Amino acid sequence: MLIGKPKRNAAEGVIENNRWLDQNDARDFVGSGFRALLSAAGQNARTLLGHVSTSLHLFSQARLPNPISLVTTPQQRLSSRMDVNSAAVETVEEAPPLDPAPRKAGSYYRPELDALRFFAFFSVFVGHGPRLNYGPSSPMWKQLVGSAYERISYAGLYGLPLFFFLSSFLITELLLREREKTGSVHIKAFYIRRVLRIWPLYFVGVLGAIALSIAFPHHYGLTHREIAYLILFVGYLGGSFHFNPFGILWSVSVEELFYLAWPWVANRGKQVILYLALLCLPISLITCFVVTPQEWFNPVCHFIFFGTGALAALKLHQRAWNMSNVRRILMFAAGFVAVVSAPLFYWHGGRWACALSFLVVDLGVVLGFLSIFQLSPDRIPKWIIYLGQISYGLYVFHLACLHLVSRAIIPHTRVAASPFLSFLATAALSLALTISLAFLSYRYLELPFLRLKKRFEFIRSRSVSA
387 and 249 in one domain? Predict the structure, then answer.
């Protein structure tokens, strides 16, 4: 550090501009300047002593041997001096910086959860898909099969709560790990990651909804208010959007509410997460009781699935979940039965029946999740994991593909005369078209943004590849 010079410019200027001062005044002026010089020198000396003290502290931490007691020859003395210098440099380099930047650390990726994502999508696809419409002239057993399938397929719509549960579990787990590794949740980076993941494909879906509304106003027409709901991420206010195929984006706006609030919650620690997650359950059930029959599009009713996902993340955080194959199969079967039976409570009618159906679905979702959690990726086909990775695109495009195939293609083919063949052709062609669009969307639209998203990660997730 440079020792500061005494400030002489002001004194010299006074002497030059006031040569009429008498000798005593000049003597007093010089004395005051000398005292200022001594004060500045003392201050710089104290600073220099501080640096010396810091250096001595660093050398004491190095715990070096006394070089003089070990040196007997000039060559050894030179070697010892070099060792002392190198050790001092190493000690200084190991000292932590005063203001370290947050470092990216850790990774978390569970391939089996991608498989669950695909299962959630496929459930929704079945719920929105074709039905076995056997007429009154068909044999009784066919009518019974068609009726049973319709009831089971209706339960497929509860794949949406599984999406909510998985989002809450993964976000909570990643934020917990980020807070443990870096000391806090970096909220700005979290919002940037969510924007890069959600918005590009979401607004493509919004443009699709507007295009269909303009091209087919009698079938898919949207009001200006409904379009504004989609653009502003409050699609849950629009309900079914007159059955516009891209009206399903209302569910993304529900997830956006969770993304908006949860990093602030996670940044307060596990206790706050626990209390709020537990609070979500009664609030959701009470809301279902109050708003029935408009509960499906009410975001508060779905808070139960976000709360349960957060609780699962707290319970399973940094823990192993080992189960035998038999237990996994039994647990998955129990979850499947719970979800399929949920519509029975819903159709029973009544406010409490609706709330009970949400509770049963939540139980089924948890059982299904636990049945596959930490399952070895070797037991899951690679194509299912990949389809789970592009499940966002599958969800966005599937209803538009179902409408296109069932209304514009199948009616003009020979299979339209057979309910069974029409059902198979519609389902197969719609699913193939949905996968194709999701593949193109992931590779050419989502992938560049996902690569950019990696720059804002503190906990690495799955690798980004085409």
Answer: yes
Burial readout 57-94 (b: 16 or more C-beta within 10 A, e: otherwise):
eeeeeeeeeeeeeeeeeeeeeeebeeeeeeeeeebeee
Number of structural domains in the chain:
2
Q: Among residues 125, 111, 113, 206, which one has the least CA distance to residue 158?
A: 125
Terminal alpha carbon distance of the chain: 55
| Alpha-carbon gap, residue 298 to 287, rounded angstroms | 9
**Do the Cβ atoms of 84 and 64 come closer than 8 Å?**
yes
Q: What is the DSSP letter of 375?
A: -
Please give the helix or strand (H or E) that residue 157 lies within, else none.
none
Query: 41 pLDDT exceeds 80?
Result: no
* Residues 58 and 205 placed together within one structural domain of the fold: no
Domain of 418 in residue numbering reads as 122-456
Q: Are residues 64 and 141 in the same domain?
A: no
Least confident of 23-37, 119-133, 160-174: 23-37
Residue of higher predicted confidence among 433 and 141? 433
Long-range CB pairs of 56-61, under 8 A, 24+ apart, other chains included: 58/88, 58/91, 58/92, 58/95, 59/88, 59/91, 61/91
* Distance set, CA 101 to CA 96, 163, 366, 460 (Å): 11, 34, 38, 17
For the chain, give the mean pLDDT: 82
- The one-letter amino acid code at 287 reads T
pLDDT at 242: 78
